[in-house]
Amino acid sequence: DPDLVVVITPIFMLEGQVVKRDIVEAARECEHRFKEIRIARPLLPDGRIYEVVRHEVASRMKNVPPAATGIIFVGHGTPDDDAARLYGECARQLTSLFASPFRAAFGNLESPAPYLGEGVGELIMSGIGRLLVQPFMIVHGVHMHDDVKGALEEQDPDNRLYRFLLDRWGEPVKQRLREIHRIYMPGLGAYPGVFHIFADHTLEALSAGASPARQER
Description:
single chain, alpha/beta, two-stranded parallel sheet, 8 helices, 6 strands, elongated
């Protein structure tokens, strides 16, 4: 339809290489069929995500004594420089949001800055009795089931995260993992507030005309 404006909304955390390269290329291949194709913003950056996470975590922690509780936010990570800076800001925001009496940390699975093993290891060895695990990813998928639970639950010797914990803190980490009760939260996609943000980004692209695919050339 030559009169139709199409908006593509990436259901991703941030504008990494998939958005910058793959989605833009797909839009270019089809743009001749429409009046315009626009690409909406992914979830980040948008400061509203911190309020959504605060609300959801607080609702789960109502009857949990905070003084002995750690919260680890698990990001995916990416080698993209802009994304790395954005994840650094996420780490600052989230750890500040859940400051004392909680102990909070943020870490990525797929990039070293900050790497998940550092934050979760420090929490495990800090004397907490409970560890709440909040994926800072849209879906609670293979990374949580294989990478995170493979380390915290199965203590799989072939698991990269578990090997990092053992190398850094040694045998005592095994005892601490036996003592700590884990609470697993769903991925961010389970929270209605997250999709309200995606919907707003879609409407912004539709009304403001931001990020047309053809302008990415």
